[in-house]
Design a protein that fits this description.
The protein is of the alpha+beta class. The protein contains 6 helices and 14 strands. It has 2 domains: 95 residues, Phosphorylase Kinase, domain 1 (2-Layer Sandwich), CATH 3.30.200.20; 122 residues, 2-Layer Sandwich (D-amino Acid Aminotransferase, Chain A, domain 1).
Length: 253
């Protein structure tokens, strides 16, 4: 596919104009970031793995009726997606206490929550993506009440699907982050699951050993991020045949 005009570049992906109106090409980079991009590295093969894994999850979710922006994978690093108007929220679903929640509430990491908890953060890197209550979301017009109800319902469906898939391959889904976008059909908005689902946006622990298989490996210097992501892909049966490895990431100063 010939390279088209760049529309947006984030920390882990680049969006290009798609071949048809209303589409984009989403390119997965090898860049890894943590702590609001204060820590950076290039992890060879990460983008290839995330592209394949996100395709796997998005396809599976579409099969159970969760609407997504995913159309098809184009090659090892790119996928064709529908262009959406992103809702400026990160939607976090937690099954176990970890990360910022554990720190915020003084809980031991890995503590099972009484039920899945859905949190929202305002998408703003400069502010550190602060947590926001539902009242803010409605008051500031980021989403209306019906959209918010639909987002929560869809996020919990994603959680049910992901938890089951991961448990089936010996992985515990601790928490994850998703985003949603709107498309307009006959002047009416419809919500789609957008962005990506990959170990970049999930916490995944091996059920038997507790080994981390997600971006916490990079955040906490726990070993090879490529090895962790490759293990997830291997267990799910979506391991690309030509992912290369480096013994260490290339640090960006």
């Amino acid at each position: 596919m010939s390279r088209r005009k760049k529309v947006y570049e984030g920390k882990a992906k680049i969006l290009y104009e798609g071949p048809e109106p209303g589409t984009l090409v989403q390119y997965f980079k090898d860049d890894a970031t943590a702590f609001n991009a204060e820590k950076k590295a290039v992890i060879d093969g990460k983008g290839v793995l995330n592209n394949r894994l996100s395709e796997f999850f998005m396809t599976g979710l579409a099969a159970i009726g969760v609407p997504t922006h995913f159309i098809r994978r184009l090659n090892m690093r790119e996928q064709l997606i529908r262009q959406v108007e992103i809702v400026p929220l990160e939607v976090i679903v937690r099954n176990f206490a970890a990360g910022s929640m554990a720190k915020r509430l003084g809980m031991e990491e890995g503590t099972q929550l009484p039920r899945p908890i859905v949190e929202f953060s305002f998408k703003n890197d400069a502010l550190g993506d602060p947590l926001v209550p539902e009242e803010y979301i409605i008051a500031f017009g980021w989403a209306n009440q019906q959209e918010l109800d639909d987002i929560i319902s869809l996020a919990l469906r994603v959680n049910d699907f992901m938890s089951g898939v991961m448990h089936g391959v010996g992985i515990k889904l601790i928490d994850f982050k998703v985003e949603f976008g709107r498309i307009w059909e006959n002047d009416f908005p419809r919500l789609l699951l957008a962005d990506e689902i990959s170990p970049d946006s999930c916490r995944l622990w091996d059920i038997e050993t507790g080994r981390k298989l997600d971006k916490d490996v990079f955040r906490r210097d726990l070993g090879s991020l490529t090895d962790a992501y490759t293990e997830v892909a291997r267990r799910l049966g979506v391991l690309p045949s030509n992912v290369t490895h480096r013994p260490k990431p290339t640090l960006i100063n």
